[in-house]
Design brief:
The chain has two domains: 369 residues, no CATH class; 144 residues. Helices cover 59% and strands 5% of the residues. The protein contains 21 helices and seven strands. Helix 9 runs antiparallel to helix 10. It is globular, with a radius of gyration of 24 Å.
Length: 518
Protein backbone atom coordinates (compact mmCIF):
# COMPACT_ATOMS: atom_id res chain seq x y z
CA UNK A 1 0.00 0.00 0.00
CA UNK A 2 1.38 3.40 -1.04
CA UNK A 3 1.73 5.53 2.08
CA UNK A 4 1.71 8.67 -0.06
CA UNK A 5 -2.01 8.17 -0.68
CA UNK A 6 -2.65 9.01 2.96
CA UNK A 7 -0.28 11.96 3.16
CA UNK A 8 -2.78 14.66 2.21
CA UNK A 9 -5.71 13.30 4.27
CA UNK A 10 -3.43 12.97 7.31
CA UNK A 11 -2.04 16.46 6.85
CA UNK A 12 -5.53 17.91 6.50
CA UNK A 13 -6.78 16.15 9.62
CA UNK A 14 -3.85 17.57 11.59
CA UNK A 15 -4.46 21.07 10.23
CA UNK A 16 -8.19 20.76 10.90
CA UNK A 17 -7.40 19.96 14.52
CA UNK A 18 -5.23 23.07 14.63
CA UNK A 19 -7.89 25.27 13.02
CA UNK A 20 -10.56 24.04 15.44
CA UNK A 21 -8.29 24.22 18.49
CA UNK A 22 -7.98 27.99 18.22
CA UNK A 23 -11.77 28.31 18.43
CA UNK A 24 -11.95 26.01 21.43
CA UNK A 25 -9.12 27.87 23.12
CA UNK A 26 -10.90 31.19 22.54
CA UNK A 27 -14.13 29.83 24.02
CA UNK A 28 -12.34 28.29 26.98
CA UNK A 29 -10.56 31.55 27.69
CA UNK A 30 -13.70 33.69 27.55
CA UNK A 31 -16.12 31.53 29.52
CA UNK A 32 -15.80 27.78 28.98
CA UNK A 33 -16.20 25.01 26.45
CA UNK A 34 -19.62 24.34 25.01
CA UNK A 35 -21.58 24.79 21.81
CA UNK A 36 -22.45 28.05 20.02
CA UNK A 37 -26.13 27.17 19.61
CA UNK A 38 -28.73 25.44 21.73
CA UNK A 39 -29.78 22.98 19.01
CA UNK A 40 -26.53 21.06 19.49
CA UNK A 41 -27.80 19.92 22.89
CA UNK A 42 -30.97 18.56 21.25
CA UNK A 43 -28.83 16.10 19.30
CA UNK A 44 -26.88 15.27 22.45
CA UNK A 45 -30.10 14.58 24.35
CA UNK A 46 -31.39 12.23 21.66
CA UNK A 47 -27.98 10.50 21.54
CA UNK A 48 -27.85 10.03 25.31
CA UNK A 49 -31.41 8.71 25.47
CA UNK A 50 -30.72 6.33 22.61
CA UNK A 51 -27.89 4.80 24.63
CA UNK A 52 -29.51 4.92 28.06
CA UNK A 53 -33.10 4.00 27.21
CA UNK A 54 -32.73 2.30 23.80
CA UNK A 55 -35.32 4.63 22.31
CA UNK A 56 -35.40 7.55 19.88
CA UNK A 57 -36.69 10.23 22.22
CA UNK A 58 -36.02 13.70 23.52
CA UNK A 59 -37.94 12.99 26.71
CA UNK A 60 -37.58 9.45 28.08
CA UNK A 61 -40.63 7.32 27.36
CA UNK A 62 -41.90 9.53 24.53
CA UNK A 63 -40.60 8.57 21.08
CA UNK A 64 -40.44 11.65 18.84
CA UNK A 65 -39.01 12.97 15.58
CA UNK A 66 -37.41 16.18 16.79
CA UNK A 67 -33.90 15.38 15.56
CA UNK A 68 -33.26 16.89 12.14
CA UNK A 69 -30.27 14.62 11.54
CA UNK A 70 -30.69 10.98 12.58
CA UNK A 71 -27.24 10.11 11.24
CA UNK A 72 -25.48 12.86 13.21
CA UNK A 73 -27.38 11.93 16.34
CA UNK A 74 -26.33 8.29 15.86
CA UNK A 75 -22.72 9.34 15.44
CA UNK A 76 -22.93 11.25 18.71
CA UNK A 77 -24.48 8.19 20.35
CA UNK A 78 -21.26 6.27 19.68
CA UNK A 79 -19.45 8.69 21.97
CA UNK A 80 -22.16 8.31 24.61
CA UNK A 81 -21.88 4.52 24.33
CA UNK A 82 -18.12 4.75 24.87
CA UNK A 83 -18.58 7.04 27.86
CA UNK A 84 -16.80 9.98 26.23
CA UNK A 85 -17.40 13.61 27.08
CA UNK A 86 -20.26 14.79 24.85
CA UNK A 87 -18.51 17.98 23.81
CA UNK A 88 -15.12 16.38 23.14
CA UNK A 89 -16.62 13.68 20.92
CA UNK A 90 -18.61 16.24 18.93
CA UNK A 91 -15.45 18.33 18.45
CA UNK A 92 -13.51 15.29 17.23
CA UNK A 93 -16.21 14.33 14.74
CA UNK A 94 -16.47 17.90 13.49
CA UNK A 95 -12.72 18.36 13.08
CA UNK A 96 -12.44 15.07 11.20
CA UNK A 97 -15.30 16.07 8.89
CA UNK A 98 -13.61 19.43 8.26
CA UNK A 99 -10.30 17.76 7.37
CA UNK A 100 -11.98 15.26 5.06
CA UNK A 101 -13.94 18.08 3.40
CA UNK A 102 -10.65 19.84 2.63
CA UNK A 103 -9.20 16.64 1.16
CA UNK A 104 -12.32 15.99 -0.96
CA UNK A 105 -12.37 19.63 -2.14
CA UNK A 106 -8.74 19.35 -3.23
CA UNK A 107 -9.53 16.26 -5.30
CA UNK A 108 -12.61 17.92 -6.73
CA UNK A 109 -10.62 20.93 -7.94
CA UNK A 110 -7.88 18.71 -9.36
CA UNK A 111 -10.44 16.81 -11.42
CA UNK A 112 -11.94 20.02 -12.73
CA UNK A 113 -8.67 21.70 -13.75
CA UNK A 114 -6.88 18.45 -14.65
CA UNK A 115 -3.74 19.33 -12.72
CA UNK A 116 -2.70 18.77 -9.09
CA UNK A 117 -0.83 22.07 -9.02
CA UNK A 118 -3.56 24.13 -7.36
CA UNK A 119 -5.33 21.52 -5.28
CA UNK A 120 -3.60 22.41 -2.02
CA UNK A 121 -4.88 25.97 -2.30
CA UNK A 122 -8.55 25.04 -2.00
CA UNK A 123 -7.71 22.51 0.73
CA UNK A 124 -6.15 25.24 2.88
CA UNK A 125 -9.02 27.59 2.07
CA UNK A 126 -11.55 25.04 3.33
CA UNK A 127 -9.57 24.32 6.48
CA UNK A 128 -9.34 27.94 7.60
CA UNK A 129 -12.57 29.39 6.19
CA UNK A 130 -14.11 30.72 9.38
CA UNK A 131 -17.70 29.62 8.73
CA UNK A 132 -16.54 26.05 8.16
CA UNK A 133 -14.35 26.00 11.28
CA UNK A 134 -17.26 27.42 13.29
CA UNK A 135 -19.45 24.63 11.91
CA UNK A 136 -16.77 22.06 12.74
CA UNK A 137 -16.95 22.85 16.46
CA UNK A 138 -20.64 23.74 16.58
CA UNK A 139 -21.80 20.29 17.66
CA UNK A 140 -24.17 20.28 14.68
CA UNK A 141 -24.46 18.21 11.52
CA UNK A 142 -23.65 21.13 9.20
CA UNK A 143 -20.03 20.17 8.54
CA UNK A 144 -20.97 16.52 7.85
CA UNK A 145 -23.55 17.66 5.30
CA UNK A 146 -20.88 19.90 3.76
CA UNK A 147 -18.55 16.90 3.44
CA UNK A 148 -21.23 14.83 1.73
CA UNK A 149 -22.03 17.63 -0.71
CA UNK A 150 -18.38 17.89 -1.77
CA UNK A 151 -18.17 14.10 -2.12
CA UNK A 152 -21.25 14.10 -4.37
CA UNK A 153 -19.76 16.76 -6.63
CA UNK A 154 -16.50 14.81 -6.66
CA UNK A 155 -18.43 11.79 -7.91
CA UNK A 156 -20.12 13.89 -10.57
CA UNK A 157 -16.66 14.67 -12.00
CA UNK A 158 -15.82 10.96 -12.31
CA UNK A 159 -15.70 9.27 -15.71
CA UNK A 160 -17.82 7.24 -15.76
CA UNK A 161 -20.24 8.17 -13.01
CA UNK A 162 -21.45 5.28 -10.84
CA UNK A 163 -25.20 6.05 -10.69
CA UNK A 164 -26.29 3.59 -7.98
CA UNK A 165 -23.51 4.70 -5.65
CA UNK A 166 -24.30 8.32 -6.44
CA UNK A 167 -27.99 7.80 -5.66
CA UNK A 168 -27.12 6.08 -2.38
CA UNK A 169 -25.05 9.12 -1.39
CA UNK A 170 -28.03 11.36 -2.11
CA UNK A 171 -30.21 9.16 0.07
CA UNK A 172 -27.60 9.21 2.82
CA UNK A 173 -27.70 12.99 2.67
CA UNK A 174 -31.34 12.96 3.79
CA UNK A 175 -30.27 11.16 6.98
CA UNK A 176 -27.90 14.09 7.62
CA UNK A 177 -30.27 16.89 6.61
CA UNK A 178 -33.36 16.73 4.37
CA UNK A 179 -32.13 19.68 2.29
CA UNK A 180 -29.30 17.48 0.97
CA UNK A 181 -31.90 16.04 -1.41
CA UNK A 182 -31.48 19.24 -3.43
CA UNK A 183 -28.38 17.51 -4.87
CA UNK A 184 -30.80 15.86 -7.28
CA UNK A 185 -30.77 19.20 -9.10
CA UNK A 186 -27.11 19.06 -10.28
CA UNK A 187 -27.62 15.40 -11.20
CA UNK A 188 -30.60 16.34 -13.36
CA UNK A 189 -28.67 19.32 -14.75
CA UNK A 190 -25.80 17.11 -15.87
CA UNK A 191 -28.15 14.61 -17.49
CA UNK A 192 -30.03 17.40 -19.26
CA UNK A 193 -26.86 18.99 -20.65
CA UNK A 194 -25.17 15.70 -21.57
CA UNK A 195 -24.89 14.97 -25.30
CA UNK A 196 -25.09 11.21 -24.84
CA UNK A 197 -28.06 9.32 -26.35
CA UNK A 198 -31.30 9.85 -24.44
CA UNK A 199 -31.63 6.14 -23.73
CA UNK A 200 -28.31 6.07 -21.88
CA UNK A 201 -29.20 9.17 -19.90
CA UNK A 202 -32.54 7.73 -18.84
CA UNK A 203 -30.81 4.53 -17.75
CA UNK A 204 -28.39 6.49 -15.56
CA UNK A 205 -31.26 8.47 -14.11
CA UNK A 206 -33.15 5.30 -13.29
CA UNK A 207 -30.15 3.71 -11.60
CA UNK A 208 -29.51 6.90 -9.62
CA UNK A 209 -33.11 6.96 -8.41
CA UNK A 210 -32.82 3.29 -7.50
CA UNK A 211 -29.76 3.97 -5.36
CA UNK A 212 -31.57 6.93 -3.81
CA UNK A 213 -34.67 4.88 -3.01
CA UNK A 214 -32.65 2.14 -1.31
CA UNK A 215 -31.47 4.63 1.33
CA UNK A 216 -34.16 7.31 1.28
CA UNK A 217 -37.27 5.13 1.67
CA UNK A 218 -36.01 3.74 5.02
CA UNK A 219 -35.49 7.36 6.11
CA UNK A 220 -39.14 8.16 5.40
CA UNK A 221 -40.28 5.04 7.21
CA UNK A 222 -38.09 5.94 10.19
CA UNK A 223 -39.64 9.40 10.46
CA UNK A 224 -43.12 7.93 10.18
CA UNK A 225 -42.46 5.48 12.97
CA UNK A 226 -40.87 7.90 15.45
CA UNK A 227 -42.77 11.10 14.68
CA UNK A 228 -45.95 10.11 12.89
CA UNK A 229 -44.99 12.15 9.80
CA UNK A 230 -42.80 11.56 6.75
CA UNK A 231 -40.45 14.39 7.67
CA UNK A 232 -38.83 15.45 10.98
CA UNK A 233 -40.87 17.69 13.26
CA UNK A 234 -38.39 20.49 12.64
CA UNK A 235 -39.38 20.51 8.95
CA UNK A 236 -42.79 21.86 9.94
CA UNK A 237 -41.96 23.80 13.11
CA UNK A 238 -39.24 25.99 11.65
CA UNK A 239 -41.31 27.04 8.65
CA UNK A 240 -44.28 27.84 10.86
CA UNK A 241 -42.20 29.88 13.29
CA UNK A 242 -40.69 32.10 10.60
CA UNK A 243 -43.63 32.25 8.19
CA UNK A 244 -44.01 36.01 8.78
CA UNK A 245 -40.50 36.63 7.42
CA UNK A 246 -41.64 35.40 4.02
CA UNK A 247 -43.66 38.59 3.74
CA UNK A 248 -40.44 40.53 3.06
CA UNK A 249 -39.59 41.17 -0.62
CA UNK A 250 -38.03 38.12 -2.26
CA UNK A 251 -35.09 40.16 -3.53
CA UNK A 252 -34.10 41.22 -0.02
CA UNK A 253 -34.50 37.67 1.29
CA UNK A 254 -32.37 36.24 -1.49
CA UNK A 255 -29.66 38.88 -1.17
CA UNK A 256 -29.45 38.23 2.57
CA UNK A 257 -28.77 34.55 1.88
CA UNK A 258 -26.25 35.24 -0.90
CA UNK A 259 -24.25 37.64 1.26
CA UNK A 260 -23.62 35.24 4.14
CA UNK A 261 -21.07 32.90 2.47
CA UNK A 262 -19.25 35.92 1.04
CA UNK A 263 -18.35 37.35 4.44
CA UNK A 264 -14.68 36.43 4.41
CA UNK A 265 -12.43 35.13 1.66
CA UNK A 266 -15.48 34.29 -0.44
CA UNK A 267 -15.86 37.88 -1.58
CA UNK A 268 -12.40 37.77 -3.19
CA UNK A 269 -13.48 34.74 -5.21
CA UNK A 270 -16.41 36.47 -6.90
CA UNK A 271 -14.26 37.31 -9.98
CA UNK A 272 -13.25 33.65 -10.17
CA UNK A 273 -16.88 32.54 -10.02
CA UNK A 274 -17.73 34.96 -12.82
CA UNK A 275 -14.76 33.81 -14.93
CA UNK A 276 -15.58 30.12 -14.44
CA UNK A 277 -19.19 30.75 -15.42
CA UNK A 278 -18.19 32.78 -18.47
CA UNK A 279 -15.64 30.21 -19.70
CA UNK A 280 -18.05 27.29 -19.31
CA UNK A 281 -20.81 29.20 -21.12
CA UNK A 282 -18.48 30.34 -23.92
CA UNK A 283 -17.31 26.78 -24.53
CA UNK A 284 -20.86 25.41 -24.25
CA UNK A 285 -19.75 23.21 -21.34
CA UNK A 286 -22.94 23.78 -19.42
CA UNK A 287 -22.45 20.67 -17.31
CA UNK A 288 -19.59 22.42 -15.52
CA UNK A 289 -22.08 24.94 -14.18
CA UNK A 290 -23.91 22.31 -12.11
CA UNK A 291 -22.28 23.29 -8.78
CA UNK A 292 -23.09 26.98 -9.28
CA UNK A 293 -26.66 26.18 -10.29
CA UNK A 294 -27.06 24.07 -7.16
CA UNK A 295 -25.58 26.70 -4.80
CA UNK A 296 -27.87 29.44 -6.13
CA UNK A 297 -30.87 27.13 -5.99
CA UNK A 298 -29.99 26.02 -2.45
CA UNK A 299 -29.79 29.57 -1.16
CA UNK A 300 -32.93 30.52 -3.08
CA UNK A 301 -34.80 27.67 -1.41
CA UNK A 302 -33.99 29.09 2.02
CA UNK A 303 -34.92 32.57 0.84
CA UNK A 304 -38.30 31.20 -0.19
CA UNK A 305 -39.11 28.90 2.73
CA UNK A 306 -36.85 29.70 5.71
CA UNK A 307 -35.40 33.20 5.20
CA UNK A 308 -33.25 33.42 8.32
CA UNK A 309 -29.56 34.33 8.55
CA UNK A 310 -28.86 33.96 12.27
CA UNK A 311 -25.81 32.05 13.52
CA UNK A 312 -23.70 33.40 10.66
CA UNK A 313 -26.03 31.99 8.01
CA UNK A 314 -25.50 28.41 9.17
CA UNK A 315 -28.14 26.97 6.85
CA UNK A 316 -26.22 28.06 3.74
CA UNK A 317 -22.73 27.23 5.06
CA UNK A 318 -22.69 24.00 2.96
CA UNK A 319 -22.48 26.14 -0.20
CA UNK A 320 -19.12 27.61 0.79
CA UNK A 321 -16.89 24.81 -0.64
CA UNK A 322 -18.61 25.35 -4.00
CA UNK A 323 -17.65 29.03 -3.87
CA UNK A 324 -14.07 28.15 -2.91
CA UNK A 325 -13.56 25.42 -5.53
CA UNK A 326 -15.24 27.14 -8.48
CA UNK A 327 -13.86 30.56 -7.52
CA UNK A 328 -10.27 29.30 -7.32
CA UNK A 329 -10.78 27.30 -10.53
CA UNK A 330 -11.90 30.42 -12.37
CA UNK A 331 -8.89 32.42 -11.20
CA UNK A 332 -6.14 29.84 -11.67
CA UNK A 333 -7.44 28.73 -15.05
CA UNK A 334 -6.68 32.19 -16.43
CA UNK A 335 -3.07 32.19 -15.24
CA UNK A 336 -1.48 30.46 -18.29
CA UNK A 337 -3.09 32.91 -20.70
CA UNK A 338 -1.76 36.04 -18.99
CA UNK A 339 0.91 38.02 -20.81
CA UNK A 340 3.67 39.98 -19.23
CA UNK A 341 5.84 39.09 -16.28
CA UNK A 342 4.24 41.63 -13.96
CA UNK A 343 0.74 40.40 -14.71
CA UNK A 344 1.73 36.80 -14.13
CA UNK A 345 3.36 37.78 -10.85
CA UNK A 346 0.12 39.42 -9.69
CA UNK A 347 -1.92 36.37 -10.64
CA UNK A 348 0.43 33.87 -9.08
CA UNK A 349 1.72 35.76 -6.06
CA UNK A 350 -0.17 38.92 -5.13
CA UNK A 351 -3.68 37.51 -5.34
CA UNK A 352 -2.92 34.32 -3.32
CA UNK A 353 -1.11 36.45 -0.74
CA UNK A 354 -4.05 38.85 -0.34
CA UNK A 355 -6.55 36.01 -0.25
CA UNK A 356 -4.43 34.22 2.35
CA UNK A 357 -4.35 37.34 4.48
CA UNK A 358 -8.12 37.71 4.36
CA UNK A 359 -8.55 34.00 5.08
CA UNK A 360 -6.29 34.20 8.13
CA UNK A 361 -7.81 37.45 9.37
CA UNK A 362 -11.36 36.14 9.28
CA UNK A 363 -10.26 32.84 10.85
CA UNK A 364 -9.03 34.86 13.84
CA UNK A 365 -12.15 37.03 13.92
CA UNK A 366 -14.27 33.90 13.65
CA UNK A 367 -12.64 32.56 16.82
CA UNK A 368 -13.85 35.64 18.68
CA UNK A 369 -17.35 35.22 17.28
CA UNK A 370 -17.37 31.55 18.25
CA UNK A 371 -16.23 32.35 21.80
CA UNK A 372 -18.98 34.94 22.13
CA UNK A 373 -21.62 32.53 20.81
CA UNK A 374 -20.55 29.76 23.19
CA UNK A 375 -20.44 32.15 26.13
CA UNK A 376 -24.03 33.23 25.50
CA UNK A 377 -25.37 29.68 25.26
CA UNK A 378 -23.41 28.49 28.29
CA UNK A 379 -24.24 31.47 30.48
CA UNK A 380 -27.91 31.62 29.49
CA UNK A 381 -29.49 28.35 28.29
CA UNK A 382 -27.11 25.99 30.07
CA UNK A 383 -26.99 28.04 33.28
CA UNK A 384 -30.79 28.32 33.49
CA UNK A 385 -31.16 24.61 32.78
CA UNK A 386 -28.69 23.70 35.51
CA UNK A 387 -30.61 25.92 37.94
CA UNK A 388 -33.82 24.12 37.07
CA UNK A 389 -32.12 20.76 37.66
CA UNK A 390 -31.00 21.86 41.12
CA UNK A 391 -33.94 23.94 42.32
CA UNK A 392 -37.17 22.43 41.01
CA UNK A 393 -39.09 19.29 41.81
CA UNK A 394 -38.10 16.32 39.61
CA UNK A 395 -41.75 16.04 38.55
CA UNK A 396 -41.98 19.71 37.49
CA UNK A 397 -43.20 20.51 33.98
CA UNK A 398 -41.14 23.22 32.26
CA UNK A 399 -42.31 25.29 29.29
CA UNK A 400 -39.46 26.69 27.17
CA UNK A 401 -38.66 27.93 23.70
CA UNK A 402 -35.04 26.71 23.62
CA UNK A 403 -35.12 23.12 24.82
CA UNK A 404 -31.67 21.72 23.93
CA UNK A 405 -29.71 22.46 27.09
CA UNK A 406 -32.87 22.11 29.15
CA UNK A 407 -33.40 18.59 27.87
CA UNK A 408 -29.79 17.59 28.46
CA UNK A 409 -29.13 19.25 31.82
CA UNK A 410 -32.58 19.95 33.26
CA UNK A 411 -33.92 16.38 33.11
CA UNK A 412 -37.49 17.56 33.52
CA UNK A 413 -40.65 17.09 31.49
CA UNK A 414 -40.84 19.83 28.87
CA UNK A 415 -43.41 21.70 26.82
CA UNK A 416 -41.56 22.92 23.74
CA UNK A 417 -42.96 26.32 22.76
CA UNK A 418 -41.14 26.07 19.40
CA UNK A 419 -42.89 22.81 18.50
CA UNK A 420 -39.89 20.54 17.92
CA UNK A 421 -40.62 18.15 20.77
CA UNK A 422 -44.25 19.27 21.21
CA UNK A 423 -45.59 19.40 17.63
CA UNK A 424 -49.18 20.08 18.73
CA UNK A 425 -48.22 23.69 19.57
CA UNK A 426 -47.08 24.42 16.00
CA UNK A 427 -50.46 25.91 14.97
CA UNK A 428 -50.35 28.35 17.93
CA UNK A 429 -46.60 29.13 17.98
CA UNK A 430 -47.01 32.89 18.25
CA UNK A 431 -50.46 33.18 19.77
CA UNK A 432 -49.63 33.88 23.40
CA UNK A 433 -53.21 33.65 24.59
CA UNK A 434 -53.55 30.16 23.16
CA UNK A 435 -50.13 29.20 24.50
CA UNK A 436 -51.16 30.35 27.97
CA UNK A 437 -54.28 28.22 27.76
CA UNK A 438 -52.14 25.29 26.62
CA UNK A 439 -49.78 25.70 29.58
CA UNK A 440 -52.71 25.83 31.97
CA UNK A 441 -54.40 22.83 30.42
CA UNK A 442 -51.25 20.70 30.71
CA UNK A 443 -50.28 21.93 34.18
CA UNK A 444 -47.02 23.75 33.46
CA UNK A 445 -45.06 24.65 36.59
CA UNK A 446 -42.31 26.89 35.17
CA UNK A 447 -41.57 28.98 32.09
CA UNK A 448 -37.97 29.43 30.91
CA UNK A 449 -37.41 32.11 28.27
CA UNK A 450 -35.95 35.47 27.35
CA UNK A 451 -38.60 37.98 28.54
CA UNK A 452 -39.00 39.85 25.25
CA UNK A 453 -39.71 36.64 23.33
CA UNK A 454 -43.06 36.19 25.11
CA UNK A 455 -43.92 39.54 26.70
CA UNK A 456 -47.49 38.52 27.61
CA UNK A 457 -46.59 35.11 29.00
CA UNK A 458 -43.79 36.55 31.11
CA UNK A 459 -46.10 39.32 32.27
CA UNK A 460 -48.45 36.70 33.68
CA UNK A 461 -45.71 34.74 35.49
CA UNK A 462 -43.56 35.24 38.59
CA UNK A 463 -39.75 35.40 37.98
CA UNK A 464 -37.77 33.13 40.29
CA UNK A 465 -34.33 33.10 38.64
CA UNK A 466 -32.36 35.32 36.26
CA UNK A 467 -28.95 34.32 34.92
CA UNK A 468 -27.38 37.80 35.22
CA UNK A 469 -24.50 36.98 32.87
CA UNK A 470 -23.02 39.90 30.87
CA UNK A 471 -22.54 38.22 27.47
CA UNK A 472 -26.05 38.27 26.06
CA UNK A 473 -26.78 41.92 27.03
CA UNK A 474 -23.41 42.92 25.56
CA UNK A 475 -24.50 41.34 22.27
CA UNK A 476 -27.75 43.31 22.28
CA UNK A 477 -29.87 40.63 23.96
CA UNK A 478 -31.09 39.99 27.47
CA UNK A 479 -30.79 37.45 30.26
CA UNK A 480 -32.69 34.21 30.45
CA UNK A 481 -35.34 34.14 33.19
CA UNK A 482 -37.11 31.24 34.86
CA UNK A 483 -40.69 32.05 35.90
CA UNK A 484 -43.10 30.21 38.12
CA UNK A 485 -46.20 29.69 36.01
CA UNK A 486 -49.37 30.46 37.91
CA UNK A 487 -52.46 29.62 35.90
CA UNK A 488 -54.77 31.94 37.80
CA UNK A 489 -52.82 35.01 36.70
CA UNK A 490 -53.00 34.50 32.98
CA UNK A 491 -55.00 37.00 30.91
CA UNK A 492 -58.47 36.38 29.63
CA UNK A 493 -58.97 33.87 26.77
CA UNK A 494 -58.46 35.35 23.34
CA UNK A 495 -55.58 37.62 24.34
CA UNK A 496 -52.86 37.01 21.79
CA UNK A 497 -49.75 38.50 20.34
CA UNK A 498 -48.99 37.49 16.79
CA UNK A 499 -45.31 37.13 16.02
CA UNK A 500 -43.32 39.97 14.50
CA UNK A 501 -39.56 40.34 14.06
CA UNK A 502 -39.64 43.19 16.55
CA UNK A 503 -41.26 41.20 19.35
CA UNK A 504 -37.82 39.97 20.39
CA UNK A 505 -36.23 43.34 20.66
CA UNK A 506 -35.38 43.33 16.96
CA UNK A 507 -32.75 40.65 17.55
CA UNK A 508 -34.08 37.99 15.22
CA UNK A 509 -32.66 39.10 11.94
CA UNK A 510 -30.84 42.34 12.58
CA UNK A 511 -27.62 43.19 14.33
CA UNK A 512 -25.82 40.45 16.18
CA UNK A 513 -25.98 36.94 14.75
CA UNK A 514 -26.43 35.45 18.19
CA UNK A 515 -29.75 37.17 18.71
CA UNK A 516 -31.63 33.91 18.14
CA UNK A 517 -30.20 30.56 19.12
CA UNK A 518 -32.37 27.84 17.69
Amino acid sequence: MDARRFAWPTAYLVLAALACSLYLFAARREFGLGFPLDDAWIHQTYARNLVQYREWSFQPGSVSGGSTSPLWTSMLAVGALLGLDARAWAYILGACALGLTAWAAQNWLVRRVQTPRWGWMVGIAVLFEWHLVWAGVSGMETIVETLLIVLVFLQLEAKPIQPIRLGACLGLGAWIRPDALTLLVPVAWLLATDRAPIRGRLRRLGLTLLGLALVFVPYLVFNRLVGGAWWPTTFYAKQAEYAVLRQAPLVSRLSAQLIQPMIGVGVLLLPGLALATWRASRKAELGRLAPIVWAIMFMSLYALRLPVTYQHGRYVIPTIPVILVIGIEGLVSTAPSQTGAERRRWTRLAWPASAGGVLLGFWLLGAQAYARDVSIIESEMVAASRWIASNTDPEALIAAHDIGALGYFGRRSIIDLAGLATPEVIPILRDEGSLAEYLNRHGADYLMTFPAWYPNLTGWAQPVFRTGAPFSPAAGGENMVVYRWEAAKFASPGTSMLYSPHSRGGRLEHGNDTGHYR
